[in-house]
UniProtKB/TrEMBL annotation, chain A:
The gene is impa2. Keywords: Hydrolase, Magnesium, Metal-binding. CDD domains: IMPase. One of its GO terms (molecular function) is metal ion binding. This is Inositol-1-monophosphatase. Pathway: Polyol metabolism; myo-inositol biosynthesis; myo-inositol from D-glucose 6-phosphate: step 2/2. Belongs to the inositol monophosphatase superfamily. It comes from Clupea harengus.
From TrEMBL, chain B:
Belongs to the inositol monophosphatase superfamily. GO terms for molecular function: inositol monophosphate 1-phosphatase activity; metal ion binding. The gene is LOC105902692. Pathway: Polyol metabolism; myo-inositol biosynthesis; myo-inositol from D-glucose 6-phosphate: step 2/2. This is Inositol-1-monophosphatase. Mg(2+) 1 binds at E70, I92. GO terms for biological process: inositol biosynthetic process; phosphatidylinositol phosphate biosynthetic process; signal transduction. The keyword Hydrolase applies. The keyword NAD does not apply. Keywords: Hydrolase, Magnesium, Metal-binding. InterPro entries: IMPase, Inositol_monoP_metal-BS, Inositol_monoPase_Li-sen, Inositol_monophosphatase-like, Inositol_monophosphatase_CS.
Amino acid sequence: MTSTEIKCWGECMDVAVQIAHKAGKVVQEAVKQEKRVSSKSTPTDLVTEADQQVEDLIISTLREKFPSHRFIGEESSAAGEKCILTDEPTWIIDPIDGTCNFVHSFPMVAVSIGFAVKKELEFGVIYHCFDGTLYTARRGHGAFCNGTPIQVSKEKDISKALILTEIGAKRDPATLEIFSGNMLKLLSAPAHGVRIIGSSTLALCHIATGAAEAYYQYGLHCWDIAAAAVIIREAGGCVIDTSGEPWDGCFR
Amino acid sequence: MDDPWMECMDHCIAVTKEAGKMIREALQKDISIMQKSSPVDLVTETDQKVEALIISSIKKKYPTHSFIGEESVAAGAPSILTDSPTWIIDPIDGTTNFVHRFPFVSVSIGFTVNKEIEFGVVYSCIEEKMYTARKGKGAFCNGVPIKVSGQEDITKSMVLTEMGFKSDLQHFRTMMANMESILTIPVHGIRAPGSAAVNMCLVACGAADAYYHIGIHCWDMAGGAAIIREAGGVIMDITGGPFDLMSRRLVTASSKAIAEHIAQKIQPFPCGRDDTED
């Protein structure tokens, strides 16, 4: 990276932090209002007007400042835009992570903004909309929660681990059987426990702060993981594919 | 006196705040863990200290009252509910979360007279949310009135439950089958935050529409039961019959319709009772 690039990505991150705060406040207000809810791929894959509005706010603000950059956003992808990661500076955005939680005012909802250049994740910013906590990390510069350095737990023994996961939108018998089977293996380890909170980005932030030891999931999208992957790595943790192989950012 | 138990409730809130402060302070230090009935049934010195703080404070003011406290029972005290004014205490509900510093940790106190729950106090101490309810006087979070969502359509509901280690494989399979049964209704989602008392308060304030659990204890349920009822919610046995505080199981919901639907879907498995020897 050139020194110009280093400075530029630092400036991009400052803007990301500002827009995450702004978007987060919009979500905080929207959670108190009545929500118009519809579904996407299945009856349990929810989306609201707020998801669209917040994504538009984030992308329009960033586009104005960085007109040559690319964008991958959850709602833009749902509307048909391609989700291909190129070498170009690319923002990877989940405007409301935990839409189902948002609909119910269940207190785990986040704005997630990741940034990649030459397909390498450079920084991540995640804003917890209910309690205003900000998680940030820049590649090579550590991970922070409200400006305080964070690191993953040092636990290596699965029988002392707290594990996070999600059930997901797929409810067919085969998927649920796999889910149960995975629960049996983990709870019989016996892990200390399994928790489900409904926001993958916040679950990953809890790994980064050491409040849980592991998170696994099938069916995530790149916008769910991009920001959190930087935060976890900078907090000393690791991100791998569920097969045990290296993680491919857009592979679900 | 207009309300003979209001003074008890005020004292309860005050001692609960102190307990919450003790828990938050303990979270800043190392936590050493012991095990009770199994490698995943955790207890810490803080559980014991907090319970001792609460009981000694209440005993000083109300020496004739009875107590059922999680750690006292673990140490051999009886857990039979009598007609006596009785304090039912979980000093740290969500001890596993506490050990990991995972955000749902609460102090839970329910107060019964003639086996009726008169008031409940649940303090979600990391979030600093104090939930309170006096029978007939409504439910509150940090002094602001709360109420259940009122949702009656289970296909639009958010359901809470917990998944725990079960030494009996058949019990485990029933637990997972119950989850699948609920998921395929379908409901909007299932969440498992890790504290029964907090789960009940999440239903009470409308952030979830139902919570069911087989295998918890009276000290997990007593405080939250008052709060849910006063928030307009429903609490019943998993069979659809009346709620039994010592039965170690419950279904709570924002409406009778949802509670009954869940009760119809889930199968029981043996979980013992708090008032009998296992």
